[in-house]
Design goal:
alpha+beta; Alpha-Beta Plaits; 2 domains; 3 helices
Length: 192
């Protein structure tokens, strides 16, 4: 650089300085804006990928829900097959008599059936209901098994307003109970 004249040295410094300024302008004007645009695009891509994954997850859940809905519809159809149809009074009495055979439960009293009428347990329920009061006697243990098994076997029937009293306070039948209960059963919509 010493061999160059003063004027040439100044021109060289100006060229180097001008080149540095142009490179800085290119860096800050083009490259850094492109890098920031690329960062924004990368974050948008990540957000879209996250949304896509959420949509895929929901689609898988939708398929699962469809399978569950189909299973529930089949289960409901099987339950409806056992629901009360036709003559509700004879259907209810026959159902109770058939069910009580393996139990030592005596049910000689049956009231008249009330219904079918709108279901008062759930608003806007698609089934009607009918109810019937029954009375009888049984030993404590047998009656407990009877009630538990009855409500498990018939999901469309409920035991309500159950009253229990000792049948006699004397002798060997001290564990024998007399009972009175109301049976509420759902009725198929087409049967009413």
């Amino acid at each position: 650089m010493k061999k160059l004249s003063k004027q040439k040295q100044q021109q060289l410094v100006l060229v180097v300085l001008g080149t540095a300024i142009v490179l800085a302008a290119v860096w800050f004007g083009l490259i850094s804006t492109q890098q920031s645009t690329l960062r924004q695009l990368a974050s948008q891509k990540a957000a879209v990928a996250k949304k896509l994954e959420a949509v895929r997850h929901e689609m898988l859940k939708a398929e699962s829900v469809d399978v569950q809905l189909t299973d529930a519809q089949h289960k409901l159809a099987r339950i409806e097959e056992g629901m009360a149809t036709g003559d509700l009074y004879s259907w209810t009495i026959n159902t109770i008599r058939q069910f009580k055979l393996p139990y030592k439960v005596e049910i000689p009293q049956f009231s008249q059936i009330d219904g079918p009428k709108e279901c008062n347990q759930l608003y806007n329920f698609p089934y009607k209901q009918a109810s019937l009061s029954v009375g009888g006697s049984a030993y404590y243990y047998e009656f407990g098994r009877f009630v538990a098994d009855f409500e498990n076997q018939f999901p469309y029937m409920r035991i309500m307003n159950l009253t229990l009293e000792p049948e006699s306070a004397q002798g060997s039948d001290r564990e024998k109970l007399s009972f009175r209960m109301e049976l509420m059963t759902l009725v198929k919509p087409s049967a009413s």
